[in-house]
Amino acid sequence: MWFRAVAVGSAVCLAALGVAGCGDDDDGADVKVSLSEFIVTPEPASIESGSRTIEADNVGGETHELVIAKADSTSDLPTDEDGAVDEEGFEAAGVELVDEAEDIAADDSKELTVDLEPGTYVLFCNIVEEEEGETVSHFAEGMVNTLRVT
Ligand SMILES: [Cu+2]
Q1: pTM for the model
Q2: Cα 109 to ligand 1 centre (Å)
Q3: Distance from the CA of 135 to the center of ligand 1, in angstroms?
Q4: Is the pLDDT at 6 greater than 90, yes or no?
Q5: d(Cα 30, Cα 55) in Å, to the nearest integer?
Q6: Distance from Cα 131 to the centre of ligand 1, integer Å
Q7: Are 144 and 74 in contact (CB under 8 A)?
């Protein structure tokens, strides 16, 4: 499902290359989510409900992803021993996975179109990597934020 949204997003991105670049505000996304080490910033942070396009814009230097989950707060998300979000545990925790855009390379962006009901959504990157023998969870490092839908 997200694959199709990604393909559309990439086509828009390619078409915009050389004209205005990718990720400019004029591409029609309702929310632009900036991803970097290790911050997730939605702009705006509050939008109205309905079918909305969300652009995940990797402005950092590493590959990131954007996962959208419906939960009252970040602390509702179940985590595993690495400090990463345990997406397998969503149902038991009453958290709903809405959509995700994976493998967004540095300077790249992907777009999702999602139906958003009023409430709180948690936006995070759930990449876990090994760095010099240590496990680094992007979520645990701070790649999480919330989006309010009214
Ligand atoms: Cu990340």
Answers
A1: 0.81
A2: 13
A3: 13
A4: no
A5: 8
A6: 13
A7: yes
Q: Give yes or no for residue 150 having a pLDDT over 80.
A: yes
Evaluate if residue 17 carries a pLDDT over 60: no
Question: What spacing in Å lies between the alpha carbon of 86 and ligand 1's midpoint?
Answer: 15
DSSP string for residues in 37-104: TTEEEEESSEE-SEEEEEEEEE-SSS-EEEEEEE-SSGGGS-B-TTSSB-GGGHHHHT-EEEEEEEEE
Q: What is the pLDDT of residues 77-96, one digit of tens each?
A: 999 999 999 999 999 999 99
If you measure from the C-alpha of residue 141 to the centroid of ligand 1, how many angstroms do you get, rounded to a whole number? 9
Q: How far is the CA of 139 from the centre of ligand 1 (A)?
A: 7
Q: Tokens standing for 138?
A: 């992007």
Q: How far is the CA of 77 from the centre of ligand 1 (A)?
A: 17
Whole-number Å distance, alpha carbon 125 to ligand 1 midpoint, is 5
| C-alpha to C-alpha distances, 10 to 60, 82, 103, nearest whole angstrom | 18, 32, 13
Tokens of 26: 């004029």
For the chain, the straight-line distance linking the first and the last C-alpha, in angstroms and rounded, comes to 25
